[in-house]
Amino acid sequence: MIDLRTVVKKEKKRIFQVNSASLHGRTANAITIMDNDAVHQWARSGEIVITSSRMMPENIDIAKQVIQKLAQKNTCCLMVKPYTDSISSKFPAELKDYADQLDFPLFEIDKDVTYIQIMNDFNTLCKRHP
Does the reported pTM lie above 0.90? Predict the structure, then answer.
């Protein structure tokens, strides 16, 4: 397992926390890509979850449910890559506030970064910090 703060420090030019949830005490043991919102089927405790803004539900109440399920499954955090530069690809303020209430960290991935770059860096960090 690796401390989330270590991941954030390593990726500081690639990911940006968009809410104020605490990173203290959060550890990650894996990284996975969210390709559907059936969180109960695939999410595991300790995972960093990566997805695109296209995979996030447009309906704010459904998006809140996804965040709540990720928090309940004790996943480490959610990192979303905006599909476009438009405001619709960003986390809505209401969703950030809700994640703060749950103390669940949300990150935005820089538009020029690929999932595989984040995944490779995470795996390298894990090898260095067994």
Answer: yes
